Amino acid sequence: MYKVLTNGTIYTGDNCITGKSIVIRDDHIEAILANRSVPKDAEIIDCQGNNISPGFIDLQIAGAGGYLFSSNLNGKALRAITESIVKSGTTGFLIVLPTNSPDVYPAAIKTIKENPDPAVLGLHLEGPFINPSRRGAHAVEYIKKPAKEEIDQLLNDAAGIVKMVTVAPELCTREIIEQISGYGIVVCAGHSNATFEEAMNGFSWGIKAVTHLFNAMSPMHHRDTGLPGAAFQSENILASIVADGIHVDYGMISIARRLLKEKLYLVSDAVEASSEAAVQHVRQNDSFTLPDGTLSGSALTMMKAVQNCVERVGIPVDETLRMASTYPAKLMNLKNIGKIKPGFKADLVIFDKNFKVRIVIKEGKTILPDSFI
Q1: Mapped to the 3 state alphabet, what secondary structure does the chain carry?
Q2: Contact call for residues 180 and 124 (beta carbons, < 8 A)
Q3: CATH number for the domain whose boundaries are 56-331
Q4: What is the CA radius of gyration of the chain?
Protein backbone atom coordinates (compact mmCIF):
# COMPACT_ATOMS: atom_id res chain seq x y z
CA MET A 1 0.00 0.00 0.00
CA TYR A 2 1.34 3.38 -1.00
CA LYS A 3 0.91 6.58 0.99
CA VAL A 4 1.17 9.90 -0.82
CA LEU A 5 1.62 13.38 0.65
CA THR A 6 0.23 16.06 -1.65
CA ASN A 7 -0.37 19.81 -1.60
CA GLY A 8 2.57 20.82 0.56
CA THR A 9 5.80 22.81 0.35
CA ILE A 10 8.56 20.21 0.55
CA TYR A 11 11.83 21.10 2.28
CA THR A 12 14.06 18.21 1.28
CA GLY A 13 17.22 19.17 3.14
CA ASP A 14 18.75 20.17 -0.19
CA ASN A 15 16.14 22.47 -1.69
CA CYS A 16 12.50 23.58 -1.59
CA ILE A 17 9.97 21.92 -3.92
CA THR A 18 6.37 22.83 -4.70
CA GLY A 19 3.79 21.21 -6.97
CA LYS A 20 4.96 17.66 -6.29
CA SER A 21 4.02 14.75 -4.06
CA ILE A 22 5.99 12.44 -1.81
CA VAL A 23 5.34 8.75 -2.44
CA ILE A 24 5.88 6.50 0.59
CA ARG A 25 6.01 2.73 0.38
CA ASP A 26 6.12 0.84 3.66
CA ASP A 27 8.73 2.62 5.82
CA HIS A 28 10.65 4.54 3.16
CA ILE A 29 10.30 7.31 0.60
CA GLU A 30 10.00 5.78 -2.84
CA ALA A 31 9.76 8.88 -5.02
CA ILE A 32 8.99 12.58 -5.34
CA LEU A 33 6.67 12.89 -8.32
CA ALA A 34 4.47 15.30 -10.18
CA ASN A 35 0.98 15.18 -8.72
CA ARG A 36 -0.51 13.55 -11.81
CA SER A 37 1.94 10.63 -11.58
CA VAL A 38 1.10 9.28 -8.13
CA PRO A 39 -0.12 5.66 -7.79
CA LYS A 40 -3.89 5.44 -8.20
CA ASP A 41 -4.42 3.01 -5.32
CA ALA A 42 -2.49 5.10 -2.81
CA GLU A 43 -3.71 6.55 0.49
CA ILE A 44 -3.70 10.31 -0.14
CA ILE A 45 -2.81 12.73 2.64
CA ASP A 46 -3.66 16.31 1.71
CA CYS A 47 -1.16 18.56 3.51
CA GLN A 48 -3.43 21.58 2.88
CA GLY A 49 -0.65 23.88 1.78
CA ASN A 50 1.46 23.28 4.89
CA ASN A 51 5.19 22.63 5.09
CA ILE A 52 6.80 19.20 4.90
CA SER A 53 10.20 18.69 6.49
CA PRO A 54 12.42 15.76 7.39
CA GLY A 55 11.62 14.66 10.92
CA PHE A 56 13.74 16.52 13.45
CA ILE A 57 16.80 14.90 15.04
CA ASP A 58 17.61 15.98 18.60
CA LEU A 59 21.01 14.84 19.88
CA GLN A 60 20.45 16.09 23.43
CA ILE A 61 17.19 15.59 25.25
CA ALA A 62 16.93 14.42 28.85
CA GLY A 63 13.20 14.05 29.29
CA ALA A 64 9.67 14.61 28.01
CA GLY A 65 6.12 13.44 28.63
CA GLY A 66 6.43 14.05 32.38
CA TYR A 67 9.54 11.93 32.85
CA LEU A 68 13.21 12.75 33.31
CA PHE A 69 14.99 9.67 31.98
CA SER A 70 17.86 9.60 34.50
CA SER A 71 15.33 9.55 37.35
CA ASN A 72 13.02 6.99 35.70
CA LEU A 73 15.13 4.23 34.20
CA ASN A 74 12.32 1.93 33.11
CA GLY A 75 10.47 0.98 29.96
CA LYS A 76 7.26 2.80 30.87
CA ALA A 77 9.07 6.12 31.22
CA LEU A 78 11.12 5.63 28.06
CA ARG A 79 7.99 4.84 26.05
CA ALA A 80 6.22 7.92 27.41
CA ILE A 81 9.25 10.10 26.64
CA THR A 82 9.48 8.71 23.11
CA GLU A 83 5.78 9.12 22.37
CA SER A 84 5.83 12.75 23.52
CA ILE A 85 8.97 13.59 21.56
CA VAL A 86 7.79 11.98 18.32
CA LYS A 87 4.42 13.76 18.49
CA SER A 88 6.31 17.06 18.71
CA GLY A 89 7.97 16.41 15.34
CA THR A 90 11.25 14.88 16.49
CA THR A 91 11.46 11.43 14.90
CA GLY A 92 14.97 10.56 16.06
CA PHE A 93 16.83 11.49 19.24
CA LEU A 94 19.70 10.70 21.56
CA ILE A 95 18.55 10.59 25.13
CA VAL A 96 21.12 12.36 27.27
CA LEU A 97 22.41 11.12 30.60
CA PRO A 98 24.08 13.89 32.64
CA THR A 99 26.82 13.24 35.17
CA ASN A 100 25.40 10.76 37.64
CA SER A 101 26.14 8.03 40.14
CA PRO A 102 28.00 4.97 38.80
CA ASP A 103 24.98 2.66 39.07
CA VAL A 104 22.86 4.86 36.78
CA TYR A 105 24.94 4.26 33.64
CA PRO A 106 24.44 0.47 33.32
CA ALA A 107 20.79 0.85 34.30
CA ALA A 108 20.23 3.41 31.52
CA ILE A 109 21.98 1.21 28.97
CA LYS A 110 19.93 -1.81 30.06
CA THR A 111 16.66 0.13 29.77
CA ILE A 112 17.40 1.22 26.20
CA LYS A 113 18.56 -2.28 25.20
CA GLU A 114 15.39 -3.88 26.54
CA ASN A 115 13.00 -1.28 25.10
CA PRO A 116 14.14 -0.70 21.51
CA ASP A 117 12.37 1.95 19.45
CA PRO A 118 13.43 3.31 16.04
CA ALA A 119 13.12 6.88 17.34
CA VAL A 120 15.64 6.23 20.12
CA LEU A 121 18.96 6.53 18.31
CA GLY A 122 21.01 5.82 21.42
CA LEU A 123 22.50 7.39 24.51
CA HIS A 124 24.45 10.64 24.86
CA LEU A 125 26.69 10.61 27.93
CA GLU A 126 27.13 14.23 29.01
CA GLY A 127 29.82 13.61 31.59
CA PRO A 128 31.13 12.42 33.97
CA PHE A 129 34.46 13.41 32.39
CA ILE A 130 33.88 17.16 32.59
CA ASN A 131 35.45 20.14 34.34
CA PRO A 132 33.97 20.82 37.81
CA SER A 133 34.50 24.56 37.30
CA ARG A 134 32.08 24.44 34.33
CA ARG A 135 29.71 21.84 35.70
CA GLY A 136 26.57 23.96 35.27
CA ALA A 137 23.71 21.84 36.60
CA HIS A 138 25.80 18.66 36.90
CA ALA A 139 26.34 16.99 40.27
CA VAL A 140 29.90 17.81 41.31
CA GLU A 141 30.28 14.73 43.51
CA TYR A 142 30.08 12.40 40.50
CA ILE A 143 32.46 14.26 38.18
CA LYS A 144 35.70 12.35 37.61
CA LYS A 145 38.82 12.25 35.50
CA PRO A 146 38.72 9.74 32.65
CA ALA A 147 40.46 6.40 33.22
CA LYS A 148 41.12 3.97 30.39
CA GLU A 149 39.97 0.85 32.25
CA GLU A 150 36.72 2.44 33.41
CA ILE A 151 35.91 3.70 29.92
CA ASP A 152 36.53 0.26 28.40
CA GLN A 153 34.30 -1.42 30.95
CA LEU A 154 31.46 1.06 30.44
CA LEU A 155 31.55 1.08 26.65
CA ASN A 156 32.03 -2.67 26.29
CA ASP A 157 28.93 -3.20 28.41
CA ALA A 158 27.07 -0.59 26.35
CA ALA A 159 27.32 -2.75 23.22
CA GLY A 160 26.73 0.13 20.81
CA ILE A 161 24.00 1.90 22.81
CA VAL A 162 26.24 4.91 23.59
CA LYS A 163 26.50 7.07 20.46
CA MET A 164 27.85 10.38 21.82
CA VAL A 165 30.03 11.39 24.77
CA THR A 166 30.70 14.94 25.97
CA VAL A 167 34.05 15.50 27.68
CA ALA A 168 36.22 18.41 28.79
CA PRO A 169 39.16 18.27 26.34
CA GLU A 170 41.58 19.85 28.81
CA LEU A 171 41.13 16.80 31.06
CA CYS A 172 41.63 14.23 28.31
CA THR A 173 44.77 12.89 26.73
CA ARG A 174 44.95 12.03 23.06
CA GLU A 175 44.75 8.34 24.04
CA ILE A 176 41.48 8.85 25.93
CA ILE A 177 39.76 10.67 23.06
CA GLU A 178 41.00 8.11 20.54
CA GLN A 179 39.85 5.33 22.87
CA ILE A 180 36.28 6.64 23.04
CA SER A 181 36.22 7.39 19.29
CA GLY A 182 37.39 3.84 18.64
CA TYR A 183 34.01 2.55 19.81
CA GLY A 184 32.34 4.41 16.93
CA ILE A 185 31.22 7.15 19.31
CA VAL A 186 31.04 10.85 18.42
CA VAL A 187 33.13 12.71 21.00
CA CYS A 188 32.08 16.28 21.84
CA ALA A 189 33.66 19.05 23.90
CA GLY A 190 31.54 20.59 26.61
CA HIS A 191 31.31 21.56 30.28
CA SER A 192 34.86 22.66 29.74
CA ASN A 193 37.23 25.43 30.78
CA ALA A 194 39.55 24.71 27.85
CA THR A 195 41.81 27.37 26.48
CA PHE A 196 41.88 27.89 22.72
CA GLU A 197 44.98 25.70 22.45
CA GLU A 198 43.56 22.91 24.62
CA ALA A 199 40.35 22.87 22.58
CA MET A 200 42.21 22.79 19.27
CA ASN A 201 44.33 19.91 20.55
CA GLY A 202 41.16 18.00 21.41
CA PHE A 203 39.78 18.66 17.95
CA SER A 204 42.96 17.34 16.33
CA TRP A 205 42.71 14.16 18.45
CA GLY A 206 39.20 13.31 17.27
CA ILE A 207 36.60 15.54 18.94
CA LYS A 208 33.89 16.20 16.34
CA ALA A 209 31.54 18.74 17.91
CA VAL A 210 30.87 21.19 20.74
CA THR A 211 27.96 20.61 23.12
CA HIS A 212 25.50 23.50 23.68
CA LEU A 213 27.77 26.28 22.43
CA PHE A 214 28.48 29.09 24.97
CA ASN A 215 26.81 27.28 27.87
CA ALA A 216 29.01 25.79 30.61
CA MET A 217 32.32 26.53 28.89
CA SER A 218 35.20 28.97 28.83
CA PRO A 219 33.94 32.31 27.52
CA MET A 220 35.17 34.16 24.48
CA HIS A 221 37.63 36.85 25.47
CA HIS A 222 39.88 38.97 23.30
CA ARG A 223 42.95 37.59 25.11
CA ASP A 224 41.77 33.97 25.10
CA THR A 225 38.94 32.94 22.82
CA GLY A 226 38.47 29.67 24.69
CA LEU A 227 36.36 26.79 23.46
CA PRO A 228 33.86 28.95 21.50
CA GLY A 229 36.68 30.66 19.63
CA ALA A 230 38.26 27.32 18.79
CA ALA A 231 34.93 26.12 17.39
CA PHE A 232 34.68 29.23 15.22
CA GLN A 233 38.26 28.84 14.02
CA SER A 234 38.08 25.14 13.19
CA GLU A 235 37.15 24.10 9.66
CA ASN A 236 35.46 20.84 10.63
CA ILE A 237 33.97 21.11 14.13
CA LEU A 238 30.18 21.29 14.44
CA ALA A 239 28.42 22.86 17.40
CA SER A 240 24.96 22.49 18.90
CA ILE A 241 23.03 25.43 20.30
CA VAL A 242 19.95 25.84 22.51
CA ALA A 243 17.76 28.38 20.70
CA ASP A 244 15.38 29.48 23.44
CA GLY A 245 16.73 33.02 23.91
CA ILE A 246 17.53 32.13 27.52
CA HIS A 247 20.48 29.78 27.29
CA VAL A 248 21.87 31.90 24.44
CA ASP A 249 20.78 35.38 23.40
CA TYR A 250 19.20 35.51 19.94
CA GLY A 251 21.82 38.03 18.81
CA MET A 252 24.59 35.61 19.72
CA ILE A 253 22.81 32.79 17.87
CA SER A 254 22.85 35.03 14.81
CA ILE A 255 26.59 35.65 15.20
CA ALA A 256 27.27 31.93 15.65
CA ARG A 257 25.23 31.13 12.57
CA ARG A 258 27.17 33.65 10.45
CA LEU A 259 30.48 32.15 11.57
CA LEU A 260 29.68 28.45 11.65
CA LYS A 261 27.18 28.28 8.76
CA GLU A 262 26.30 24.63 8.08
CA LYS A 263 28.29 23.52 11.15
CA LEU A 264 25.69 24.87 13.61
CA TYR A 265 22.82 22.58 14.58
CA LEU A 266 19.93 22.70 17.01
CA VAL A 267 19.34 20.72 20.18
CA SER A 268 16.58 21.15 22.71
CA ASP A 269 18.53 20.19 25.86
CA ALA A 270 15.03 19.68 27.26
CA VAL A 271 14.43 18.29 30.73
CA GLU A 272 11.48 17.58 32.99
CA ALA A 273 10.91 18.56 36.60
CA SER A 274 12.69 16.30 39.08
CA SER A 275 13.51 16.34 42.79
CA GLU A 276 16.17 13.61 42.67
CA ALA A 277 19.42 14.57 44.41
CA ALA A 278 21.67 14.36 41.31
CA VAL A 279 19.20 15.83 38.82
CA GLN A 280 17.02 18.46 40.45
CA HIS A 281 15.14 20.59 37.93
CA VAL A 282 12.55 23.20 38.88
CA ARG A 283 10.20 24.59 36.20
CA GLN A 284 10.49 28.36 35.73
CA ASN A 285 7.91 29.26 33.08
CA ASP A 286 9.87 28.63 29.87
CA SER A 287 13.06 27.10 31.32
CA PHE A 288 14.33 25.00 34.22
CA THR A 289 16.73 25.79 37.06
CA LEU A 290 18.31 24.02 39.98
CA PRO A 291 16.74 24.83 43.36
CA ASP A 292 19.42 27.49 43.89
CA GLY A 293 18.45 29.26 40.66
CA THR A 294 21.25 27.94 38.43
CA LEU A 295 20.01 27.59 34.86
CA SER A 296 19.70 23.93 33.89
CA GLY A 297 17.75 22.50 30.94
CA SER A 298 15.26 24.04 28.56
CA ALA A 299 11.53 23.67 27.99
CA LEU A 300 12.04 23.65 24.22
CA THR A 301 10.76 21.34 21.55
CA MET A 302 12.72 21.24 18.31
CA MET A 303 9.72 22.76 16.55
CA LYS A 304 9.85 25.74 18.90
CA ALA A 305 13.61 26.04 18.36
CA VAL A 306 12.98 26.17 14.61
CA GLN A 307 10.33 28.84 15.06
CA ASN A 308 12.65 30.92 17.25
CA CYS A 309 15.47 30.74 14.71
CA VAL A 310 13.18 31.86 11.89
CA GLU A 311 11.18 34.54 13.72
CA ARG A 312 13.69 35.83 16.29
CA VAL A 313 17.07 35.22 14.64
CA GLY A 314 16.11 35.67 10.98
CA ILE A 315 17.52 32.41 9.65
CA PRO A 316 15.64 31.27 6.51
CA VAL A 317 13.18 28.41 6.99
CA ASP A 318 15.01 25.97 4.74
CA GLU A 319 18.32 26.49 6.53
CA THR A 320 16.74 26.29 9.99
CA LEU A 321 15.15 22.97 9.07
CA ARG A 322 18.56 21.67 8.03
CA MET A 323 19.90 22.75 11.43
CA ALA A 324 17.17 20.59 13.00
CA SER A 325 17.56 17.52 10.80
CA THR A 326 20.16 17.33 8.03
CA TYR A 327 23.18 18.61 9.96
CA PRO A 328 22.75 16.43 13.08
CA ALA A 329 22.18 13.42 10.81
CA LYS A 330 25.43 14.20 9.03
CA LEU A 331 27.35 14.51 12.30
CA MET A 332 26.08 11.12 13.45
CA ASN A 333 26.72 9.56 10.02
CA LEU A 334 23.05 8.56 9.71
CA LYS A 335 22.74 7.69 6.05
CA ASN A 336 18.98 7.28 5.65
CA ILE A 337 17.37 10.04 7.73
CA GLY A 338 17.64 13.84 7.80
CA LYS A 339 16.48 14.43 4.23
CA ILE A 340 13.42 13.85 2.07
CA LYS A 341 14.93 11.71 -0.64
CA PRO A 342 14.11 8.42 -2.38
CA GLY A 343 15.47 5.53 -0.33
CA PHE A 344 15.44 7.48 2.93
CA LYS A 345 13.23 6.56 5.86
CA ALA A 346 9.76 8.08 5.72
CA ASP A 347 10.35 10.23 8.82
CA LEU A 348 8.52 13.50 8.21
CA VAL A 349 6.86 16.38 10.02
CA ILE A 350 4.09 18.51 8.52
CA PHE A 351 3.68 21.92 10.15
CA ASP A 352 1.69 25.06 9.38
CA LYS A 353 2.68 28.70 8.92
CA ASN A 354 2.48 29.24 12.68
CA PHE A 355 4.96 26.40 13.29
CA LYS A 356 2.32 24.11 14.75
CA VAL A 357 2.83 20.42 14.11
CA ARG A 358 -0.10 19.00 12.16
CA ILE A 359 1.07 15.48 11.29
CA VAL A 360 4.14 13.38 12.02
CA ILE A 361 5.09 10.37 9.94
CA LYS A 362 7.50 7.90 11.52
CA GLU A 363 8.77 5.12 9.26
CA GLY A 364 5.68 5.51 7.09
CA LYS A 365 3.19 5.45 9.96
CA THR A 366 0.97 8.49 10.46
CA ILE A 367 0.93 10.07 13.91
CA LEU A 368 -1.28 12.99 14.89
CA PRO A 369 -0.33 15.18 17.84
CA ASP A 370 -2.97 15.05 20.58
CA SER A 371 -4.16 18.59 19.89
CA PHE A 372 -5.17 17.64 16.33
CA ILE A 373 -6.78 14.23 16.93
Answers
A1: CEEEEECCEEECCCCEECCEEEEEECCEEEEEEEHHHCCCCCEEEECCCCEEEECEEEEEECEECCEEHHHCCCHHHHHHHHHHHHHCCEEEEEEEEECCCCCHHHHHHHHHHHCCCCCEEEEEEECCCCCHHHCCCCCHHHCCCCCHHHHHHHHHHHCCCEEEEEECHHHCCHHHHHHHHCCCCEEEECCECCCHHHHHHHHHHCCCEECCCCCCECCCECCECHHHHHHHHCCCCEEEEECCCCCCCHHHHHHHHHHHHHHEEEECCECCCECCCCCCEEEECCEEECCCCCEEEECCCHHHHHHHHHHHHCCCHHHHHHHHCHHHHHHCCCCCCCCCCCCCECCEEEECCCCCEEEEEECCEEECCHHHC
A2: no
A3: 3.20.20.140
A4: 20
Show me where the domains of the chain are located. Answer: 2-53+339-372, 56-331
Q: How many CB atoms lie within 10 A of CB 235?
A: 6
- Which are the catalytic amino acids? 269
Strand partners, 22: 5, 32
- Name the CATH architecture for the domain at 2-53+339-372: Roll (2.30)
- pLDDT in tens for each of the 373 residues of the chain? 789 999 999 999 999 999 999 999 999 999 999 877 777 788 899 999 999 999 999 999 999 999 999 899 999 999 999 999 999 999 999 999 999 999 999 999 999 999 999 999 999 999 999 999 998 778 889 999 999 999 999 999 898 999 999 999 999 999 999 999 999 999 999 999 999 999 999 999 999 999 999 999 999 999 999 999 999 999 999 999 999 999 999 999 999 999 999 999 999 999 887 777 677 777 787 777 777 777 778 889 999 999 999 999 999 999 999 999 999 999 999 999 999 999 999 999 999 999 999 999 999 999 988 666 4
Sign of CA dihedral 143, 147, 150, 154: positive
pTM for this predicted structure: 0.95
